[in-house]
C-alpha cells in the first residue's frame, strides 16, 4: 500500500518486503521515496484521478530497490481513504529479468525520459501507445473522443491516411504538419516508419514527433517581412500513452543517447549514428579512440563542455545545447541536444539520457531572416538619404547651369560641374533602385523581343571570348515590369558574369514560366514570392563563382570584390531592389570554380497595355512673364529655382510651407502656376496642398517635384491623379519644357 500524497509505503506483505530488499516491514515503512522523479509522481496522481476505486490499472515500470533496476508489470487499485488522503494498492504481477535484454531496457527508459513524442498507431489509425512526452502533449483520451485515432490528431485527414498507408507499407514518411494538442494547434515535425506490435505481431506505424512551432514562427516572420501576409502561430493537440514495451520498439527510430556516467559508457541508438551519417563501425571506432566531444565543431566545443559540466552539477535541470557535429560525410551540421539526468536515491547522477535533433534547416532559416532584415535596414538608410542628397544636387546643378548662360570665363568648368551632378543623380537613382523606392513605369513586356535585342547588345559588350545563348520557353508569358529596368538588370548581371570569366566562357539566358501554388503546397524555401504566376529569367555563367562570404553580401550596395575603379558595387543591389519593388524576387546560386546562376523572377502581365516612349527636350523654352509661386522648404534649393526661373523671364514668388503658400495664392493677382515640393515640413505634403488647391482655386495649375518619391508620392501615383511631376535634380531644359507644357495645357 503506497501513500500517494506523502509518497511513502504504508504496508507490504512478505513478498513486497523481499522485492524491496528490506530486512523487515518497519525498515520498509521508514524508507525515503522523496527522490522519485516527477514522471513517477505525475503517473501515480493520474492513476488516482482516473478511477473511481473499482477499476484496476495495468502498467509496466522500472523500479530501483537499493539502486538496482527491476522491470515489473504492476496492477494498481486506487483507494480514497478520506478527503485529501489518497493511496494505491500495488500488486507485482510479473518480474522481468533485466539481464535478458539490457539494450531494450535502456531504450525503454530513454523513451520514458525523452522529450521526443513517440506514438504507435495500428494500420487502421487506432492509437496503441504513446510515451510520457506524447501524453503530456496530447493528454489521455477516452475511446470515441476526438484524438483517439490518427485522423483526429492531424488537422489534414488526407495526410493522416497517406502517412498510415506509407509507413505500414514499409516506407518512411517525413512531414511537417499542424497537430491538435491540449494547448491548441502546434506545428510538429513527424517521422513515421513501419514497426511491429510486440503484442500482436501486426505491422504498425511508429511516429516520432518534435515540436517546431518556433521554426514555423520564424517562417511567418520572414513572410511578414517580405509581404506582410501571414501572422499567427499554430498551437498544439492531444493524446494518450499505454505500454512501454511499445515505446522501446518506437524509439529504435529516434536519435537517442544513454550515457552510463559511472562506467563512462555511451550507448546510442542506431538512428543516432544514422543522423550523423556514419557507418556504425566507424562511429564506434571514433568513440573508442577519442570521445563524442571531439566530433563537436571547434567553435562550439567550449560551450558544449560547459553545458555538460552544469548538467552533471545540476541534474534537476535538463541538458540543452545547440552545436555543430562533424558528419560522416565530412561536413558540419547543426543539432539540438536535449537530455535528462537519472539520479540515485541520494540525488547523484547515474545516467544521462536524451535526444539529438537535426536543426540545420532552422539555423539556415534564422540566417536568412537576419540577412533579409539587414538588407531591409540598408534599404531604409539608402532611401532615407536620397531626398537630402538630391536637394544638394539640385543646388549644384542649378547653379552650374546658371553659370553656363552668363558670359563667364569658367564656362567649361560649369559644364564639368553639371556632368558631376548628373553622375551624382544617377548614383542616387541606383540607391533608390536597391531600396525599392525608384520610380518605375511598368507595362506588359514581351521577353522574346527584349531578350533577342539585348542578346545582340551583349555580344558586343562581353567580347568574342564569351558565348551568349538564349533559351526561351514556348508559350512564354509576358511580364509586368519596367522594360528599361529589365534590360538594365540583365545587363548588370551579364557584366558581372563577364568579370568572373576573364579567360572567356559561356553565358546562358533562360526564360521560363513559373507558378507559385497557394496553401500547403508551397515549399519551405525562404522567398518573398506570393502565390501566383511569374516568369523566371535565369542567367548562368561558367565563371569563378563566389565564396560563402561573398554570397552573403552580394546584394548589398557598394559591396564589390573588384579592384578600386572597376565597379561601384551597385549592379546586383539594383537587380535585387528592382525585382522586389516589381513584386518579384532575385536569388543567387553559386559554386566556386564552376559558375554562378542568378534568377530574376517577375510577375506575369495581366494585360497587353503599352506605354509611349518619352522624348527628351532639346532646348530651354523662355517664359512670357507669367507668375510662378515656388513652395520649397530648403532655402538653397529655393534660391537656385528662383534664379533659374527669373532667367527664363518668369515672375517668381516664394514660400517654405503649405500654409504660407495658400495665403500667397489668395492674394491677387493669383499665381499662374505653383511649383511645389512633395515633402514639406509641418505634416502636410505637397500632394495634400495640391488637392486642397484644386478644391479652393481650380484655375491655378501645379507641378509637383521631389528627390525621394515613395508610397503614394511616386511619379506614377501622382500622374494617375492628374499632376505633372519633376524628379530632383532636374535639368533646366526639362524644367522649362514641363512648365510651358502645363501652362499651355
At a glance:
With 745 residues, the protein is of the alpha+beta class.
Mean pLDDT: 77
CATH architecture of the largest domain: 2-Layer Sandwich
Strand content: 25-35%
Please tell me how large the radius of gyration is. 37 Å
Outline, from the CA principal axes?
elongated
Q: Quick one: CATH class of the largest domain? A: Alpha Beta
Helix content: 25-40%
Per-chain topology:
Blueprint: E1 2-3, E2 8-9, H1 14-19, H2 25-29, H3 38-50, E3 57-63, E4 70-82, E5 85-96, H4 102-113, E6 117-121, E7 127-130, H5 132-138, H6 150-153, H7 157-168, E8 173-181, E9 184-196, E10 203-211, H8 213-227, H9 244-250, E11 256-260, E12 265-268, H10 270-275, H11 280-289, H12 298-313, E13 319-326, E14 332-343, E15 349-358, H13 360-404, H14 411-434, E16 443-445, H15 447-462, E17 466-472, E18 479-481, H16 483-499, E19 505-516, E20 532-541, H17 548-553, H18 571-581, E21 585-591, E22 595-603, E23 627-631, H19 635-647, E24 651-655, H20 658-666, E25 673-677, H21 686-696, E26 701-706, H22 715-720, E27 724-727, H23 732-744
Parallel strand pairs: 17-19, 23-24, 23-25, 25-26, 26-27
Antiparallel strand pairs: 1-2, 1-5, 3-4, 4-5, 6-7, 6-10, 8-9, 9-10, 11-12, 11-15, 13-14, 14-15, 16-18, 19-20, 20-22, 21-22
Helix pairs in contact: 4-9, 8-13, 13-14, 13-19, 14-18, 15-16, 16-18
